[in-house]
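General statements about sequence and structure are easier to judge against a single worked case. For one protein, we set the task of working out the structure tokens from the amino acid sequence alone. This step matters because it turns folding into a mapping between discrete strings. The amino acid sequence and the backbone structure tokens for this protein are reproduced below.
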Amino acid sequence: MDLRTLYRLIVLYMIGESNDPLSNTQITGFILEKEYTNYFVLQETISNLLDSGLILSESVHGNTLYYLTDEGKQTLSYFEGKISDSIKEDVLDFLENANLYYDEPIATSQYEKTGDNKYDVTCTIRNRKKTLLQIVLSVSTEEQADAICRNWDEQYINTYTGILDLLLN
């Protein structure tokens, strides 16, 4: 197995073993601390995993978080045995000691074009891996979709509490 494949497997293993999504900072810190490879090769590795659909990313408060896809989980299950026990131990030690839990909810938003003059905007609030609220809105312009995503980051708490108040009263 070549080293680049090993790096991909280590990143998949890290994300797969974590109870929470891992940030680019956490993955990079671990890989560089253990001197498995350099920053540029690691970023290329992460980009390759994203391009191949094995992981997903989302930006939260200026930090990129990574999740395994079902295909990533399946790939990891096939090739996990190729990772040495010592590397697995290093990863598990890191995850045990890392501050992976988020005290505050995480808000994300994204949009995609779903047809002529139609965009679906998905706004989500999560606490750890549990979804607290998810709204999908259909709008007619990309400008509207972009505005909703920008405003969601600043207004998600007010929106969440407003919806709860409306539904509970």
Remarks:
- Residues 106-168 form one domain.
- The CA atoms of residues 75 and 156 lie 35 Å apart.
